[in-house]
Amino acid sequence: MITFERFRKSLGRHRAVVDLSVTVARGEAVALLGPNGSGKTTTIKAAAGLIWPSAGAVRLGEPGRPSTDPQARALSSFLPQRVTFPDALTGREVVEFYRQLRDLDPSRSDAVLKFSALNGSSNRAVGTYSGGMTQRLGLAVAMLPNAPILLLDEPTASLDPDGICAFYSLLDERRQSGATVLFSSHQMGDVERLADRFIVLVEGRLVASFTQREIVGLLADRGFMRVRLERAVESLAARVGQIAPRTIAVGDELIVPGPARLRPDVLDLVRQGGGVIVGLTAEEGRLDRFYKDLVEPGGHP
Q1: Nearest 5°: phi and psi at 62?
Q2: Are 134 and 240 within one domain?
Q3: Which of 1, 153, 207, 211 has the lowest tally of Cβ within 10 angstroms?
Q4: From residue 178, how far is each of 25, 28, 148, 171, 174 by CA, in Å?
Q5: Residues 239 and 150 placed together within one structural domain of the fold
Q6: 205 with 248, same domain?
Q7: In 3-state terms, what secondary structure has residue 139?
Q8: Could you list the residue range(s) of the whole structural domain that residue 197 is in?
Q9: Measuring CA to CA, how many Å separate 145 from each of 79, 113, 122, 154, 220?
Q10: Do residues 112 and 95 touch, judged by C-beta distance below 8 A?
Q11: For residues 90 and 85, what is the distance between their CA atoms, to the nearest angstrom?
Q12: Are 114 and 136 in contact (CB under 8 A)?
């Protein structure tokens, strides 16, 4: 439903995105990750048809049409990173304006205002809204059409926990109906909760792409277990190292990196080697740490 074919965007001498080739399938949710300035917003705006490629192509739909084509743009709904509306308009007036632009049924206004939990404030001027309320209004506008493609740039920015829960619920509903989602986020909770696939951009270049299943496996390998013993046993680190080579001993503790599937065998080896276990903790690999390793200079999985 969304295809980038060697997409490149230059802004003067700065290359915002360089030769990006990615396809987002129908019904798939793909997260764009990367540090500030990595090209995430440029990529999403190109999919929304708001900017023209300097080279390559961005296509929407099946069959694919250039994202700047009006028929392609009609397939998508876009939420920008920074949402602004005229201060003098009420929330309902903003929603009504965009509903009429899309020529949608009047019932859609009530539906999205209910979702955004603005019913109690929808008749207040936008200028009185907090940042979180303005973000909720932006989400309401983005959800007005039942578009098959959702393009969301930092969709949960400024949202409180209730707003985030409401957003997740709505997006789950839209995905069950077959919607395709491309979104960016700095919130690892969003990524883990929503994405089928993760794409990492650094300085405008694609540096990694992982499916949810691949991430689960990679994070499992980055977990570790701490085994606290009644007393230190010098030979145990070497013994456990036969199946978990990165094992180290620190005083009366063994630190055993590696996937969870190794841990029962490790504990058996500890007991067979004379270790008396008095404490046991485990920590699984974390997506935020994995992401940090990817985007730092010289980073790798």
Answers
A1: -135, 105
A2: no
A3: 211
A4: 10, 8, 7, 11, 7
A5: no
A6: no
A7: helix
A8: 2-217
A9: 12, 13, 19, 19, 39
A10: yes
A11: 9
A12: no
- Given a contact cutoff of 8 angstroms between Cβ atoms, the answer to whether 15 and 8 are in contact is yes
Phi, psi of 66 (to 5 degrees): -55, 135
Place of tokens 């440029």: 42
CATH of the domain at 58: 3.40.50.300
| Phi, psi dihedral angles at 235 (to 5 degrees) | -80, -10
Shared domain for 52 and 187, answered yes or no, is yes
The model's pTM: 0.77
Location of structure tokens 């085994």: 227
Determine, yes or no, domain membership for 289. no
- 58 occurs within a structural domain: yes
Q: Are residues 104 and 192 located together in one domain of the fold?
A: yes
Q: Looking at the predicted structure, is the pLDDT value of residue 301 above 70?
A: no
207-252 pLDDT, tens per residue? 888 887 787 777 777 788 899 999 888 888 888 888 888 898 888 9
For the segment 50-91, what is each residue's pLDDT rounded down to a tens digit?
A: 999 999 999 999 888 999 999 999 999 999 988 899 999 999
Q: Distances from the Cα of 164 to the Cαs of 77, 143, 161, in angstroms? A: 19, 15, 5
- Please tell me the total number of residues recorded for the chain in this structure: 301
Alpha carbons 172 and 179: distance in angstroms, whole number: 9
Tally of structural domains, the chain: 2
